[in-house]
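Students often ask why we bother predicting the structure of a whole assembly rather than each chain alone. The short answer is interfaces. A chain on its own may look different once its partners are present, and contacts between molecules only exist in the joint model. In this exercise we take two input lines together and write out one structure for the complete complex. Read the inputs first and try to guess which parts will touch.
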Amino acid sequence: MNRILAIQDLIRSNPDGGKVDAFFNAPGRTFPIVEGPHATFVWRGDADGVSLRHWIFGLESESSLARIPNTDLWYLTLDIPHGSRVEYKFELHRHGGSQWIEDPRNPNRARDPFGANSVLQGEGYEVPDWVAPDPDARPGLLEPFSFHSKAFDAKRHGAIYLPARFRKTRLYPLLVVHDGSDYVNFANMRTVLDNLIHRLEIPDIIVAFTDSPDRLREYANDERHAKFLTEELLADLTGRLPIIDRPQARCLMGASFGAVAAFSTAVRYPDVWGRLLLQSGSFAFTDIGTRNRRGPLFDRVVEFVNQVRQEPKAVSERIFMSCGVYESLIYENRSLVPLLDATGMQVKFVEARDGHNWENWRDRLREGLSWLFPGPLMFVYE
Amino acid sequence: MITGEIPAIVLLGAQRYDPTLGDAIKELGVTGKIATITAGWQEREDDDEDLKEHLQGRAINLALHARGEDVFRKDKELLSAHRERQTLLRHRQDFYRVRLEHALDAQHVIDQRAAPDDILEDEARTSIDAIRNIDALHLDRCTRDRREFDARYRPLERPAIAEHRAQLAAILDDCEAIAISGGHVASLLNRLRLFGIADFAHGKTIFAWCAGAMAISERVVLFHDSPPQGPGAAEVLDAGLGFVGDVVVLPQPEFRLRLGDRARLKVMVRRFAPATCIAMPARSRVTWLRTGPTAPYGAFAIRDDGTHSFEPPPRSRSGPSSTSVDISPSSTAIPVSSGSRPRLV
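Now the answer. The structure tokens for the assembled complex follow.
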């Protein structure tokens, strides 16, 4: 038997203002209203039209909310698969113009470099407990660094994470993160590292959070960037910090163009970076011609990925890849996995019902990092 | 390997929250000093106030971790050789894991196939044999590497270690028992071997729990059915000190094993047979005398078909009896041939 959704119930009651008030004030009601696989988005107010703006590849990016007659209540019900996480905004159309706003009734927000989005947490989705600060987990140290890169003939900035129990006499693996500030600010990565280390799920590790002033250019298969990371930054860090001198202990990671930067660096310097963590990689390619539908920004990426697809080689030992199924990039990522796998590299690919955003990347950190760098969990019995 | 000079060995479940070590000591009538080994806690080795209090002032911590650090500070050649060996061991474990995972994948695929029962049974046996061969090969290589290392560097004869061994001998001479805690099992095993603790165990009653219990068994098996990166395979780490033979010790089964996953448990048990896989939850205890295991409480064996008799033990301070779980082969259909029941060696 089909369940009557709350919004349908309201519509059947021929609502007036009072009934709409009661609808909003119903005990325990949260917005959007999630009822099993159905999610109902609602907005209340005067407008000529209201649209739902989301970034789910496969659904119409603009979906109009319907107004319930004789009320100022707008709604839209969508089927949302179990465990989904969807970022969205409302677009209000008034007097010939439009404005994008966050959902005023939904306290869940995801921040990113462009601001914030509202977040629908579908049935079955829970924010992982390891992304919030744990009072028992000793915090690591985050120290800023700046570095003159010969490859770029410019300064590069970033931050070095040292684990809480860092000692100069011990040796540590190294993780280099692209878009480091964004991983710290929008994916709680510092807290995640503290927690995973505390839980013994990853080892004590040194992490270099790096940033680029021109990421779309420098991350898109740029030889200078690969040189900067491998010949300059790695050499500098290895010289002044106790880092294990083995490929298995070196990892590059990044999301989107950052993943392209990580992978293309590993390809230019095979067997240096033994671990790769690639999230929602912008691995655009063409089967014919050289111009991808995504536009000229991707030309260098397409050139790189086409080359990899033409002649896949083992350049690392373990690659963890993840991608949201609501991203258009899911197609590129899925198709790359078997090619990499066939080279003899160990590849683990994880999909999530999420989009191209920082919280998706945050939520995959535990599985990715612990697979690339298993902590002492298997060794500790007490 | 110690042969018959240990009066009793007691393996215990986790001691952190509800220690039962005191009960076990009392039960065996140990009244003298007790040497404690907390090297599995690594840098936190001396954070042992609770243990000392529990042992009512009779504990003397052997400080094996700190002694090891001292040795490496003084003997740079050994430190360098040790690091080189650690790298070798990591490589060995990594390559072993690659082979093991593929063999386990093959076992799983074959296990899903439809075929006449006799063929499936034969193939299942072959799958397990293949895995057992990989385990055995790994163990052999670890043993060979260790012997080569010992022959080349002769660690026990090096002054830095000999000095500590003399001190340890003096301390242990005055102790009636040795209590070995849990912690990082590889680190613990390393320190136990570095100082040749097996040489000092003669005549001492041994109490060991969690990693400590694993380290004194004859084969250390690492396991965790629910790590964050997905369920991996149980792995042989190395040979243990071998004080207790024919058992694989599985501490914290209530957290680390999927006790309802019969297929998974079955594979584990058959991999390590004829040794018995003994799961040791909190408050469990098994005492070995020279005649064999006695007075098991709360510990349980995983049977050949992946079943077991686990029930969370009641929270009483002492004594077994009505809720005791027998780990003898007859009661649990443990896949052991006659004469290979858990023994004190």
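Check your guess against this: The interface with chain A takes residues 14, 16, 40-41, 43, 87, 90, 94, 98, 181-187, 210-211, 214, 222-224, 227-230, 232, 235, 237, 251-252 of chain B (CB under 8 Å).
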